[in-house]
Design goal:
single chain; mainly alpha
Length: 112
């Protein structure tokens, strides 16, 4: 029973965060910046891991270079996202996320 309430609370938090980002992302520049911000970590680490695995399996150093390039490109994506989003959007997003997090914690305390 407690696990079901926790899942519902976590889903509610995820939905509120999604709603907040939809409110923020009105312009294509901000949408692109948010996309780059979210995708850069999986792209960088995923590319590095796939490159290392392929280099080990195929015994070819080309794949190490590809994995390293993907990791470096993820840092470029992070920089581009930071430039596209700017400080105002970052401040606005963190303010909304803090408010949503506090509301979610309060909801969990009331439900427990």
């Amino acid at each position: 029973m407690a696990m079901a309430k926790r899942k519902v609370g976590l889903c509610a938090l995820a939905m509120k965060v999604n709603e907040a980002f939809r409110f923020i992302a009105r312009s294509p520049r901000i949408k692109l910046g948010l996309f780059l911000l979210v995708i850069n970590v999986p792209f960088g680490y995923g590319g590095a891991v796939v490159g290392v695995l392929l280099a080990g399996a195929l015994n070819n150093h080309f794949w190490l270079k590809c994995g390293t390039s993907a990791y470096i490109l993820s840092w470029v994506m992070l920089g581009a996202a930071t430039i596209l989003l700017g400080r105002d959007t970052k401040h606005f997003a963190t303010t909304i996320l803090r408010r949503k997090w506090r509301a979610w914690r309060k909801m969990r305390k009331q439900g427990a």
